[in-house]
What does this fold into?
Amino acid sequence: MVKNTGRPGYLQIADDLRAQIQGGSLAPGTPLPSTAQLAEQYDASLSVVKMAVGILRNEGLVIGQQGKGVFVRDADDSPAAGEVAELRAAVQDLSVRLAKVEEQLATSTTRRSGRGSR
It folds into this structure.
């Protein structure tokens, strides 16, 4: 059940499911209960449950199979923590570089429009 702690419900659900996976209660290859079952179990809306499962997907703990459900991923299939950190660093670097390019384009466009209006 989601508690009124000030922490969003989807994070509480994700924490609980993560603990079950890491503790072995939900073994690799085991299907997660359906979204409706989880919503009933945690007394939460379907959208809150979907967000929680999405977090676990992003962390590489579960994997969805179209038409079959969501399954606990085998630890050997999960991306290594180092690989995830490396990808995050690359995305951050690209974000910074993109922001600089956008800033340069905005400055360049402003200068050009200033010339044309004279």
